[in-house]
Amino acid sequence: MGRGPSIEGRKNAEDAKRGKIFTKLIREITVAARNGGDPAANPRLRIAIDKALSANMTKDTVERAVRRGSGADGADNMEELRYEGYGPGGVALIIDAMTDNPVRTVADVRHALSKHGGNLGTSGSVAFQFSRVGELVYATASTDVEEKILEAALEAGADDVVNGSGQSTVLCLPENFESVKVAMVAAGFTAISDGVVMRPANRVAVAAEVIETLTDLLDWLDELDDVQEVYHNAALPES
Fold this sequence. Notes:
Order of helices and strands: HHHEEHEEHEEHEHE
Number of strands: 8
Strand order of the largest sheet: 3-1-2-8
Largest sheet: 4 strands, antiparallel
């Protein structure tokens, strides 16, 4: 009989995935800390640290990243870059990266897109289809829960709540994200995911035969060390 992956093999795969997530979180903290190493005066840094601690990163690791970014442990040479382009089926993509080698990064991104029937666009070619918003997603098992989340979110200063697929998505201005999150926690709601994101104005339906290729492209881009976040406007089943 065939045997599945060994416990050791699964653990190694989990460790590798965890390491990749930590690398991205550390980069975000490091770059955010360039605008000041004090989280109390640096909202972006506060959000980055909160996300890292939620992922069980140690405080020592967080503090080292802050020191490196603020220059206390020597300057880093990371650059923030945003790529815009199209995936299979004409799906719009925004790819945010942090890199110390832009030539390598753009080549990796272009290769990933071309392998999946996409292409890199010029700056501004798709960004107009997205807006920067605070987004908090909650699981909702009933309309009763949806109503309670709506009430709490509006009380917290959110702008809108979108319901669908057993989830309520709370939307707010980026500058209100932290206060809305704190208020929602105080009201007894814990988000499945949250952050300041690039949200598409509209999601477009994609043909069934495109979904697998697009999903593979998104996974490929996520695996690239230099890529921090990928946003798209496709209406995928899990969206």
